[in-house]
């Protein structure tokens, strides 16, 4: 893991560096502004009120901390009972930057990148913050991580001969025109990881329980999984021909599967009993699902990230494939 860096950056800044065709782009995170940096809960380090720190404060190298004490606990802090009103969080800065461009990940906060051809490109930025907890009640993790994801679309065009958006084919078009359009299809692969129908129902019921019990900070977003639930997988491949197979694996872990084709989409699941209790017992962990296929002779890859948080075993009775 990289050395922690302090910055208030939370948005992607896209700058066109030159006016030539397929120009180099500088894709980076800005270093000014303010960022919500601290809160208090076991799931996502967030309470009803947030403390903001300026970029100047974050870049001085100082820790930012606050303490809840009896008689001074804000009413919207739902974790006051579990933490005995004495939890202390030390903001330790940014532990990782990552940019994802054309399906590839770059562990950096700034990158000069040249696109090979005109088109619309999605660029995603991932920034991960870390806090250290002190005097928290036993059972809470030593560190909390919070990841923010921002996405931007870059439109790259040949400035000497601008490329107009492709139009749907019209009836009566010649076969020659159709062939030319087909030749322009770029092989792409897009994967998705989601809950099964039963586990999505469990997640929604758990969130309802959290709201009813006054523990809103425990609620789980759609990309948060329990360790041991079955991962539902899907993918869409674009190209002249569909690939022979689409493989999915969890990076740095011994789990993989092959999706089966259903029309123009691909589906599958990934589960093994050894996944139960494997991740997230000390706080949220990020898993990377790597989708890969060979489309029209080109190797394509897409990485999807999900969070596994097994700190609350409220749905232990629902553990099933």
Distinct helical segment count: 3
Structural class: mainly beta
Summarize model confidence as the mean pLDDT.
66
Distance N terminus to C terminus? 33 Å
List key phrases describing it.
2 domains, Immunoglobulin-like, mainly beta, eight-stranded mixed sheet, single chain, 321 residues
Task: Provide structural commentary.
Helices cover 9% and strands 41% of the residues. Strand 15 and strand 16 form a beta hairpin. It has helices at 55-58, 175-183, 197-212; strands at 13-16, 24-28, 34-38, 51-54, 64-67, 88-101, 104-106, 110-114, 119-134, 143-156, 188-195, 224-225, 231-238, 246-250, 256-262, 265-270, 285-295, 298-308. The protein has an eight-stranded mixed sheet with strand order 11-13-16-15-14-17-18-12. Strands 5, 6, 7, 9 and 10 form a five-stranded antiparallel sheet that branches. Strands 1-2-8 form a three-stranded antiparallel sheet, with no helix packed on it. By secondary structure, the protein is mainly β. It has two domains: 1-159, Immunoglobulins (Immunoglobulin-like), CATH 2.60.40; 187-321, Immunoglobulins (Immunoglobulin-like, Sandwich), CATH 2.60.40. The model is unreliable at 1-23, 29-86 and 158-183 (pLDDT under 50). The protein is globular and about 55 Å long.
């Amino acid at each position: 893991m990289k050395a922690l860096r302090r910055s208030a950056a939370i948005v992607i800044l896209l700058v066109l560096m030159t006016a030539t065709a397929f120009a180099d782009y500088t894709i980076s995170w800005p270093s000014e502004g303010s960022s919500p940096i601290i809160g208090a809960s076991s799931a996502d380090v967030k309470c009803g009120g947030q403390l903001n720190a300026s970029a100047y404060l974050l870049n001085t190298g100082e820790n930012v901390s606050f303490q809840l004490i009896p008689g001074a606990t804000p009413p919207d802090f739902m974790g006051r009972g579990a933490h005995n009103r004495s939890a202390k969080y030390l903001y330790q800065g940014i532990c990782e930057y990552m940019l994802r461009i054309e399906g590839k990940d770059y562990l950096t906060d700034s990158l000069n990148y040249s696109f090979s051809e005109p088109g619309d490109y999605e660029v995603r930025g991932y920034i991960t913050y870390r806090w250290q907890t002190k005097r928290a009640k036993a059972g809470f993790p030593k560190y909390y991580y919070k990841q923010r994801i921002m996405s931007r679309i870059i439109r790259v065009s040949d400035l000497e001969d601008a490329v107009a958006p492709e139009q749907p084919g019209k009836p009566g078009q010649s076969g020659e025109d159709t062939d030319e359009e087909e030749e322009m299809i770029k092989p792409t692969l897009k994967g998705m990881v989601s809950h099964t129908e039963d586990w999505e129902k469990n997640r929604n019921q758990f969130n309802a329980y959290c709201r009813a019990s006054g523990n809103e900070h425990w609620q789980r977003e759609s990309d948060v999984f329990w360790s041991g639930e079955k991962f539902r997988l899907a993918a869409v491949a674009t190209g002249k021909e569909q690939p022979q197979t689409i493989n999915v694996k969890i990076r740095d872990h011994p789990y993989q599967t092959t999706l089966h084709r259903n029309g123009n989409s691909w589906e599958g699941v990934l589960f093994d009993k050894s996944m139960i209790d494997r991740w997230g017992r000390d706080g949220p962990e990020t898993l990377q699902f790597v989708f890969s296929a060979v489309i029209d002779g080109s190797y394509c890859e897409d990485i999807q990230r999900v969070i596994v948080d097994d700190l609350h075993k409220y749905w232990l009775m629902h553990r099933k494939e």
